[in-house]
Description:
Layout: E1 2-4, E2 9-10, H1 11-19, H2 24-31, H3 41-54, H4 56-73
Antiparallel strand pairs: 1-2
Helix pairs in contact: 1-3
The protein binds FE2/S2 (inorganic) cluster.
Amino acid sequence: MIVCVCNRVSDREIARHARAGMSFDEIQFELGVATQCGHCETCARDVVAQCCGSHPVAALHRETAVQLDASITRNRAWPNSPSPAA
Ligand code: FES
């Protein structure tokens, strides 16, 4: 089903991007959805919300990325590497 008539964006396209972990703002930038008349914004946001709620895997990946980032800042990403102070 076409959600955004102005930019010819379907609910499938929006859902595919949302399942890949993209936020509404990122999808809007990527696909152009809700960037002209704006009548589709509520429906597009609903599609994103439904996908985010039913696919916690994307949220898990974000959490893992945050954990990896924290380990890098503590210089523990590579346990056998020499510390910078040594
Ligand atoms: S229908 Fe999406 S911006 Fe107009």
